[in-house]
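Contributing new records

If you add data, match the layout below exactly. Sequence lines come first and carry their own label; structure lines follow with theirs. Keep one chain per record. Anything else will be rejected by the validation script.
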Amino acid sequence: MADNPYLKEGRLADVIAAITAMGNYRYYKLDFDKWAERINNKPDDGARWGAVFADHPEFFRINPDDKKASLVWRRQLPKRFDPKRSTELQRDEFEALSPGDRNGITRRPLMASELTALINVAVELHDRALEQKKADRYWIPILSAILAFGGALLGGMIARP
């Protein structure tokens, strides 16, 4: 259980920050350095954010060819969002675009309720990881009691004349 990525220092905050940035940005997929710049204004942090994305496939997908990451939820949406106009195109509007113009079309940003749902899942997974960590230590009080009892018995035996 020590390998649970949610137990890493500051990980829940990183996951929430990534979900928020990746869910709101007008483009759904960027390379690690660009996400690092969007998330925490440090483009040199791309490797760190790449590790966060890799550790949490429940939220993020990585395109291994070009080291780009995206939010799983957004990948399931149709590519009909025009980031230049910040509008979602109807199917007939999209089909009327030239192939060159279609290249600039992406997936729509998530709605506030969708972001909230993802963040709630992240918090729940973090809480479960903490509970599991506590449950894995059930033996510590039992062992302490056994050692205390053994110490008392040993002390009693030594103290007898």
